[in-house]
Design a protein that fits this description.
The chain is an alpha/beta fold. It contains 8 helices and 7 strands, in the order H-H-E-H-E-H-E-E-H-E-H-H-H-E-E.
Length: about 220
């Protein structure tokens, strides 16, 4: 599902720091931030959910633990992160489909998911891939379905957190402002994109976004 010539930014910024990613994010409040994202998504039994940029599988595993009757798919380009995700799901005793691939080349049929979720992924994308990824996400969301996103705040929204500064360059973060995110969502064809809230983690702020796919929309 993944082109071998493509590169990506690992979940922790570097392969060597991947083992540190989960404990650091948990320490700084990432688990609580993800639970708040799930509360906003208001998942229901029988729905099909995609965690795009699932990384080490924390959000996907949490979804399945809290909503056992929801079908969960996680996608990420990093095979090392996916290996950790599969082990995490196995330890939790939950069944999740983990696929290797990129967010702008989603290998799923159109209108396949009731919800698409993303946590701490969007800032990883280069500027020219953000719009492609959002258009791909919109394509796989069912009409009437929704996309929910959690990520670090950009520089114009306030001082971004220690974890973001530690793991990612300022160039990655400055493109993650509220105005930029909402603009790219609108350009991707999402209906009514909006920032739904913000949260202070231990050493920085994160923002929540929601966007829908209207019943009138057609494939881009």
């Amino acid at each position: 599902m993944m082109g071998s010539s493509r590169t990506y930014l690992p979940a922790a910024g570097h392969d060597w720091s991947l083992p540190l990613y989960d404990p650091i994010v948990k320490l700084l409040g990432g688990d609580a931030a993800r639970k708040a994202l799930l509360e906003q998504a208001a998942l229901r039994p029988g729905q099909r959910v995609l965690d795009v940029g699932c990384g080490t599988g924390t959000l996907a595993t949490l979804i399945k633990q809290l909503y056992p009757d929801v079908e969960v798919v996680g996608l990420d380009p990093d095979p090392k992160a996916l290996a950790r995700a599969r082990r995490k799901a196995a330890r939790a005793g939950v069944s999740i489909q983990f696929d290797q691939g990129f967010g702008d080349e989603l290998p799923y049929p159109e209108a396949w998911f009731d919800r698409v979720l993303s946590s701490f992924m969007f800032h990883h994308l280069p500027p020219d891939e953000k719009g492609k990824t959002l258009r791909a996400i919109r394509r796989v969301v069912k009409p009437g379905g929704e996309f929910y996103m959690l990520d670090f705040e950009g520089r114009e929204d306030g001082a971004h957190g220690f974890l973001a500064r530690l793991l990612h360059s300022s160039d990655r973060m400055k493109d993650n402002s509220e105005s930029r995110v909402l603009s790219v969502m609108r350009q991707a064809g999402f209906a009514d994109p909006r920032k739904t809230g913000r949260r202070r983690m231990l050493l920085g702020g994160v923002a929540y976004y929601r966007a829908g796919r209207s019943w009138q929309s057609v494939s881009a």
